[in-house]
Structures are given as structure tokens and as C-alpha cells.
Write a structure and sequence with these properties.
The protein is α/β, with parallel strands linked by helices. The chain has four domains: 107 residues, Glutaredoxin (3-Layer(aba) Sandwich), CATH 3.40.30.10; 101 residues, Glutaredoxin (3-Layer(aba) Sandwich); 110 residues, Glutaredoxin, CATH 3.40.30.10; 104 residues, Glutaredoxin. It is 31% helix and 20% strand. The protein contains 16 helices and 21 strands. Strands 16-18-17-19-20-21 form a six-stranded mixed β-sheet. Strands 1-3-2-4-5 form a five-stranded mixed β-sheet. The chain has a five-stranded mixed β-sheet with strand order 6-8-7-9-10, with helices on both faces. Helix 4 crosses helix 6, helix 11 runs parallel beside helix 13 and helix 15 crosses helix 16. The longest helix has 17 residues. It is found in: Endoplasmic reticulum lumen. InterPro entries: PDI_thioredoxin-like_dom, Prot_disulphide_isomerase, Thioredoxin-like_sf, Thioredoxin_CS, Thioredoxin_domain. One of its GO terms (biological process) is response to endoplasmic reticulum stress. It is an enzyme of class 5 (isomerase).
């Protein structure tokens, strides 16, 4: 498995020998450049190709570029050659391709097989030393056959999570189900199969199968399943590959498990402590006991080092002064917080949470003392008052302070707000989505900027038009009810499905 987003490896510098190569070699580009004129033709003639969808202005793309190029220069020597390609998805002429592949952030990397008939998200490293082996592995079979003890030792290893199918023959319904799952999840997990369980390092060596044995470097070290139903097998793999308590620290070997933890649909119970603090071990020990007592109740547990997890604390809207703390996030994104927790409180607070006795915690910026600018500032605590229950027609932008598109659109929204200054029924607003919790209904915010219009009648519509003053004004005029309409505040909010993005140049910044 690979954890997209936690790329922390050092950039490899060129050797003295490499720096002495000819200018022609140094400037040669090994990454294949695609556009609307050659994309389809190129994809169709490759059984395997990796494509990066990028934007020239994207900072993440700029960081990836030299690593991607270096990886391409190595992979092209593979037998057969493995091709890395790129396409500027922000270019107007390429917008159709960006829409076809549902590109919503940069960079997005896809692995295309069989002439583009099979599409897989690239979830591997973003540095050349990691890209090369990951791509090589993805280019091979989804599941490798274990024929010797040496094969098993190489595949299973000491720090890998790998699913090994044991079969009496390499055919049949169970084998086909296993291979189908391997193809589906090959970007996230390692798969292998064998006819001889005696070759495997752990577990009952007498079984003839069919059985799936999941090896892992934590908890019980391996677990078996004989259920080959596709959904059941996938659930077994995903649930069993997460440690009883996932550790979130600076150890790179833990990152794949952190990825699985946050990908899980279970309620997430997270404790952040200072790992070097006096009470750290007693807190972690008690937390593990609590996790054991709730095993099988659709709860996932994680313990994080507060020193190394400052970004996580910021994401959840808590302060370092509140550490040690326990924060719970449910599948509907509601959060519950116990700050400055002590060992004796962990178990009782968890029971109170399960009994529904803990209040929801909401991440919110302070309510502005003054809010007199044309575009009104909304925070989590005022979202209801200004947007959802204001009895007004509200155009609201969900933005990130660092987002280039958001910075560009800010003065335009100021002009739109001034255009409606004499219309008390219209509010133009903005909310920093990185510093405030947003309800998943009626707003679906996956990139920046995301803009919605909530009419006085309760209808919520995603704005996907051009970003000019005139287009915003026209959209508001079209969607706001007549002034004679009186809102029924007791009615439930209506939501319309967002329109399909039809302009790749408006693709949202990566979250």
C-alpha cells in the first residue's frame, strides 16, 4: 500500500558522473507530453501507461516534475519499456479529456491499461526512488505466484501487508474472485497466491484451501478467511489490514496504515499525545485496552504524536494546549472532543460517547467583531444565521487562503456584492473551508473554490459557470425567487445535483 499525500523522502541529487553527461542527454525529456491531438491515439496503443494530469501553475506539480522525469528516465530502460506521460489539464483545448477522466485536482495521476479500457488511480510515492518500483510492480500481474519458500519470504517480508490466496488449483470460482479483487485493489495492497501453504512463513501449513491468509506486521500477525464473496472478501481485507491501534508518527513504515485508517468508513477515535511526555506510555496503554474492548463495533483507533502531528491538530481545529486529547469523527463528519484527557477519563468518556452523552464539537474561527465588507465573512458558528436560516438569497464561496483561484476571484465577488448593495434580499459571503467545519449536506466541498447559491426558498445549487462579474450576477438573478416569495423556514433544504464541470481551466485546487 502507498499513502498518497505523505511524500517526505529526500530529493535525490545527481552524481558527479551524471552531471558530466552531455547537454543533449541532460535536456532530453523522458516523460511523454500529450495533448488533445495525440492523447487518444497514444493511450490506445499502450497496454500500460502512467499519465499525470497537471497544471503549469500548480506548486505540487512543480515539485513532482523533476522526480517524475527522473523516474521516467529509469523506467524507459525496463523490458518492456514503461512509459510515463503528462498532459496539461488546465489547457483549454484539453478540457474534454480532463472532464472524461474526472480530474478535480492537481496533480492527478492515472494508470491506464489495455489501451485505456482499465483506469486505476495512482496511489504511490511522489519521489523517483518510490515511483520506479511502484510502477514496475503495477505493470506486472495483480497477484504473483509463490512457488518456493524464497518467493514467500520476498513477498511477505517483515513489514508488508499482503493477502495470499491458498488454492488446491489455480482455477475455479474462488480463485477467479481472488484475482478479481487483486486487480481492483492492486494499487493499495499486495497480492500473491500459492498451491502450497507449507511455503508460507506463518499459519496452518496443512490447509489446502481455498483460503485467504492476510499477513501483517502487527497485532495477530496473520488472519485467515474462507469467504470468497467479492464484497465480503474486500471488507475482510480492508478491515483486517488496519491495526487495532494505528500509530501516526514520523516512521515511514506506519504511513500505509494511517492511509487505511483514514480511508475507512468506520467512526474514527483518535488520541494525540506527546510521545516523549511523562504520561505518554500509560495513556497509550489505556487507549489500547479501550480499543480492545470496542473491537468489532465499527470503531477504528489511532494514537498520534502531537509533536509530529501538528498539521492534523490544525485540521481538526484543536490547539496544542489541549493535548493530550481524544477526538472522535463519525462517518457524517461530526466531531467529539475530550481535551486535556487523563488516563482515568478515557474509558468513561468513551462510554459517554457511545451512550450519546457527549456534545458535538465544531471547528470554527471566531465570529468577526465587525462584518462590514461587501462580501460577508461566514464561520462555522454563523453558517446557520447568515446562510441557512437567514431568509436571504446567499451566494457563498468556500475557499482556502492559499488557493490561487480563490485569490483571483476575491475582487470579482467584491464587485458582485457591490452590485447587489441595494438589494437586501441578496448576500454574497465567503467561508474559509480550511478553518471551519462544513456540513456535508447541503454542501459538498472537495476542492477550492467551491461556490453554492442558497435561495430564500431553500434550494441549493452549485455554481459551475464562468467566473466573471456578469456571469455571477446573471446566475443570482436567474436563481433567486421573486421578492414576493416568503420563505417557509420549517421546510427542509432542497438540493440540486451539481452540474458537470465543463471547463478544465476551472478545475479546483487540490485539497
Amino acid at each position: 500500500m502507498a499513502f498518497k499525500g505523505f511524500a517526505l523522502f529526500s530529493i535525490v541529487v545527481l552524481s558527479i558522473f551524471a552531471s558530466s553527461r552531455s547537454e543533449e542527454t541532460e535536456t532530453k525529456e523522458f516523460v511523454l507530453t500529450l495533448d488533445h491531438s495525440n492523447f487518444t491515439e497514444t493511450i490506445n496503443k499502450h497496454d500500460f501507461i502512467v499519465v499525470e494530469f497537471y497544471a503549469p501553475w500548480c506548486g505540487h506539480c512543480k515539485s513532482l516534475a523533476p522526480e517524475y522525469e527522473k523516474a521516467a528516465s529509469e523506467l524507459i530502460t525496463h523490458n518492456p519499456p514503461l512509459v510515463l506521460a503528462k498532459i496539461d489539464a488546465s489547457e483549454e483545448s484539453n478540457k474534454g479529456i480532463a472532464n472524461e477522466y474526472k480530474i478535480q485536482g492537481f496533480p492527478t495521476i492515472k494508470i491506464l491499461r489495455n489501451g485505456g479500457k482499465s483506469i486505476q488511480d495512482y496511489n504511490g510515492p511522489r519521489e523517483a526512488p518510490g515511483i520506479v518500483p511502484y510502477v514496475k510492480k503495477q505493470s506486472g500481474p495483480a497477484s504473483s505466484e509463490i512457488k518456493t519458500a524464497a518467493d514467500a519470504a520476498e513477498v511477505v517480508g517483515e513489514k508488508n501487508v499482503v493477502a495470499v490466496g491458498v488454492f488446491p488449483k489455480l482455477s475455479g470460482e474462488e480463485f477467479d474472485s481472488f484475482i478479481a479483487l487483486a486487480e481492483k485493489l492492486r494499487g493499495d495492497y499486495d497480492f500473491a497466491h500459492t498451491l502450497d501453504a507449507k511455503l508460507l512463513p506463518r499459519g496452518d501449513s496443512s490447509v489446502a484451501g481455498p483460503v485467504v491468509r492476510l499477513f501483517k506486521p502487527f497485532d495477530e500477525l496473520f488472519v485467515d478467511s474462507k469467504d470468497f464473496n467479492g464484497e465480503a472478501l474486500e471488507k475482510f481485507l480492508k478491515e483486517s489490514s488496519i491495526p487495532l491501534v494505528t500509530v501516526f508518527d514520523s516512521d515511514p513504515s506506519n504511513r500505509p496504515y494511517v492511509a487505511s485508517f483514514f480511508d475507512s468508513s468506520a467512526t474514527k477515535v483518535m488520541m494525540f499525545v506527546n510521545f516523549t511526555g511523562e504520561s505518554a506510555e500509560s495513556l497509550k496503554s489505556k487507549f489500547r485496552k479501550v480499543a480492545t474492548s470496542y473491537k468489532g463495533q465499527d470503531l477504528s483507533f489511532l494514537v498520534g504524536d502531537a509533536e509530529g502531528g501538528k498539521g492534523a491538530l490544525e485540521y481538526f481545529g484543536v490547539e496544542e494546549s489541549q493535548v493530550p486529547l481524544v477526538i472522535i469523527q463519525t462517518p457524517d463528519s461530526k466531531k467529539y472532543l475530550k481535551a486535556n484527557v487523563v488516563v482515568e477519563e478515557i474509558e468513561s468518556w468513551m462510554k459517554d460517547f457511545k451512550d450519546g452523552k457527549v456534545d458535538v464539537f465544531k471547528k470554527s474561527q471566531p465570529i468577526p467583531a465587525e462584518n462590514n465588507e461587501p462580501v460577508k465573512v461566514v464561520v462555522a458558528e454563523t453558517l446557520d444565521d447568515i446562510v441557512l436560516k437567514s431568509g436571504k438569497n446567499v451566494l457563498i464561496e468556500f475557499y482556502a487562503p492559499w488557493c490561487g483561484h480563490c485569490q483571483k476571484i476575491a475582487p470579482i465577488l467584491d464587485e458582485v456584492a457591490l452590485a447587489f448593495k441595494n438589494d437586501p434580499s441578496v448576500i454574497i459571503a465567503k467561508l474559509d473551508a480550511t478553518a471551519n467545519d462544513i456540513p456535508s449536506e447541503p454542501f459538498d466541498v472537495k476542492g477550492f473554490p467551491t461556490i453554492y447559491f442558497r435561495s430564500v426558498s431553500g434550494t441549493v445549487v452549485a455554481y459551475e459557470g464562468n467566473r466573471t462579474k456578469e456571469d455571477f450576477i446573471s446566475f443570482i438573478e436567474k436563481n433567486k425567487p421573486t421578492t414576493s416569495h416568503v420563505e417557509d423556514t420549517t421546510s427542509s433544504t432542497k438540493t440540486e445535483e451539481p452540474k458537470k464541470i465543463d471547463d478544465a481551466s476551472d478545475t479546483k485546487d487540490e485539497l
